[in-house]
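Troubleshooting log. The previous run stalled partway through. Resubmitting the same two chains, unchanged.
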Amino acid sequence: MAVAGITESEGRLIVALEGEIDLEQAGAVRRALLDALKKGRNVLVDLSQVTYIDSSGIASLVEGLQVAKKQKSDLALVAVSQRVRRVLELARLDKVFQIHTDLAAATAGTIPGGAGTSGN
Amino acid sequence: MLQNTPGETSTEADELRFAAELSRSFASSDNVEATVRLALGNAMQALKVEAGSLFLVDEAAGDLVCRASLGPNSIEGLRVPAGHGIVGRSVSEDRVEAVEDVSRDAGFFASADAASGFVTRSILCAPMKVGGKKPIGAVEVLNKKNGLPFDLRDRDILQVMGNAAALAIMNARLADQLVEQERIKRELELASEIQRSLLPPADPDLPIQGINRPIREVSGDFYDYFALPDGVIAFCLGDVSGKGMNAALLMAKTAALFRCLGKTIRAPARLLSILNREICETTSRGMFVTMLAGLYDPASGLLRFANAGHLPPIVRKPHGGFRSFEASAPPLGILRDVAFPEEEMRLENEMFLVFSDGVTEYRYGDREELGPEGIDMLLGLSEGKPLHDRLEGILTELNSGGWRAKDDITLLAIDDSLAGQIWRRVPSIASAESRSDFMFGLTIPAEADRLKLMRPVLAAAGKAAGFSDDEVADLELAASEAAENIILHAYGEGQRGDITLAVHRLEDGLMLRIRDFAPKVDQAKIKPRPLDDVRPGGLGTHFIRAVMDDANFIPLPDGEGNLLELVKRRKKD
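Second attempt completed without errors. Output:
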């Protein structure tokens, strides 16, 4: 399954995704993100084990971000591979999402998107 | 006309003239109605009587019917039971009857007088017959005008006349029958023509062909096939019990129902159930239809069929040898609530054959029936020829000496090896590139969970074509996005179908052709999203355009689906 697990760390929910996120898996990813956000927490999406993503998967991430913003919580991406980054760039979303290099960096900063933020 | 010659008495001359007149007029009369009137008129004139009538035996009812009546009061249409009355006695005993005073003859059928108001005094009645056969009726004359009784000469004249009239009536009946036969023949020819028009027109581009040779003008066999909008071919072959017109009419009805239902019901078993119930409800007892109906997808080779009591079809290997199936369900029109099991298989360049028992029951002299083995053997004689020619070849072979047909002959064949050729025909619409550029092609059902199966093969092709890892990722992304668009937008909710991917190697890259078999998509509606809009719609199309060098829809004829051609070139160093 695309959703490998959901863990809690320092007040944030970490949704770990894995494998190929295409039309088949996008629905499960969307539900996992929205469930996590329903708990009102800030959500980190761990993409380190994601080998493929396309517009369907990106759409789920975008929907999660929109919900997060609406409820004044946060949704950030962690450990984005070169391949996933390329797709985010194609969608011009690489500047829209907060992207952390790894979980340590994401949890280290008190202000999400602060020092640990990796952007272009 | 004969002239009176000196030496002859006037009565002899009259008789000769009468005989000549009689034969001349009978010869020119060609229907029964006119002939009986003529015969009766002639007799009354010759015998100088007040009235007369002519009766014919009604074979069906067994009585005598007055078919002509001349005189003051007509009794035309009067029926006299066999053996009754003087006329009945004359016919049943096959002899001339002369009654001088009917009031003294117990057999006199007085109800005739009662019906007409005519008063019969004397009767002369002669049977009408040809050769040694039973009389076909009798002619009777009533009351000589001069009041005298009928004499021997009168008897002879009426007897000769009766036999002449019988011959003329028999001839007229034959003529009537010929006219009727001619009419039936014309109607049969017309019916045969209409029946042929119910068969699908031969299309050399389709990988399915059929032939039908009725043993009579009309056939109880039929077959049909037509392509559905996504390219899947619906087909059937049926055989109505019996031959002749009633079988032909039930055939026409079943064929029409199939053509109508087959366009919406994409499950052969369910279609047969509906047909079965319809035929059970409305068809005369004792008639039934054996029928096989199926769906074949030329793009994938997938074939599904259900069989209602028909001979098992065979799947023939490309160079001979075959496998068969069990017949499992009863024919249509016998039991109202029957389930028809479905078979599903994927043809691998094989031939699927359905046929009527007229083919397999062919015999050569006293030898064994042809059987499916014979069909396999005969097809072996025509490897490599066009499919329709191969079916014709079977007929030609069967017709050449010794083979005897007992029944209508109908064959339907799907040649999967031709479907491959037709699929390869489609890319040629787009470009004239030679087949040697073709790397591989694959078909996946338009389902989200099949996309991941496509990507590794495409990645391997990208690597083989010398693309970098990033470029290979772009190829995978573009193809997936195109397939997702097809699943979400071309087929849409609830529609099933296939996606085919064909990969061609170019000098400096790869060309991907991605095709669906869904209704035509309005290309004007497919636009990449504006990038300042974060909503997901249109993102896939944007990705395709961003990562590929060319992305164009190739126009296909209506009903052929949609074809997207993508080209990616290697970056120049």
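Takeaways: Chain B touches chain A at residues 448-449, 451-452, 455, 470, 473, 476-477, 480-481, 484, 487-488, 531, 534-536, 539-540, 542-543, 546-547 (CB under 8 Å). Chain B has a mean pLDDT of 83.
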